[in-house]
Amino acid sequence: MEPPANIDDIPKVDLHMHAETLARLDRLVSSRNGVPPHDWAKDVTALAYLPPGMPRLEHGLSARQRSSDNDQLLALNDDDAIFVQWLTDALFESANDGAILVEMRFGGKLRQGFMSLFREAESKVRETYPSFHAEALVTGVWPGRGGASAAFASALQAAEDGLGGIDFIPIPYDREADWSEAYIWAQQAADTGLGITAHAGEFSIANIEAALMLPTVKRIGHGTYAVADPRLIDILLEKDTTLEFCLTSNVVLGAVPSLHDHPIRKLIECGVSVTLASDDPLRLCTSIGREYEIAARLGIGTEQLMEMSSNGIQASFGSLNRPQSSA
Ligand SMILES: [Zn+2]
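^ thats the input. predicted complex w/ zinc ion below
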């Protein structure tokens, strides 16, 4: 395929987008009430005053938990119609921004009928963008984490309804974790047809190698620190594992000191499969289109941007990379 002259015309793929349920609900309710939503840009600015890495990640999470009326907001989410509405809005935003494939990550136990509601939101977007696809993942899976067993069980159950996969987030995150139980869960999930991924290597080299040993793992969230160890690069190449790079997130949370220090170009040069992603677009004040623009500004050409989209399709957990499927 000829690469388009304009980056707006590049079909974009976002395999790493968290649902951001609270932020989405806050925006929906604020708009209904005619008041401004929570100002995430302010939070992003404030994070820069904290030490990079875990302090920013943990503070960012707690700031989200502190924002007002969270319990009331979350209670609204029990209403299926409200859930479908904010989900449709979120998927529409990605499609408006040129995304043809989005994989969205949901934390905690999935509600009854989750996949049919998810497909309802996806099909609303497809009325306007017929080539748009969305898949769902359960994130934050880790044996021993509060609520993880229930979330994992709901994921296994939703596998038969077409859930895309599960996403392990190790504890500890920036130091080596014990993955033995996670491997057992991953095998069990893989046996039901779920795709397997993990967050690893965002703030240190820890857990990258362990994550790459997960049964059937196709891709890793972040993996930014892989660049520090040629052996890890060799494993990535050997296993043909894709790294999901979230450029804005990596700078805001301090995984890298600046965009220009990001290892994306170096890893592409090494032949590692890389794809772009938005991570928490609402809270990080970004979008998948903006992430492609940032990559272009870093000197990544249109052809390589197209390749990153196609790497994303190859590494996705949905039907798009299975041409034999009727979907
Ligand atoms: Zn993430």
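The CA atoms of residues 175 and 206 lie 5 Å apart.
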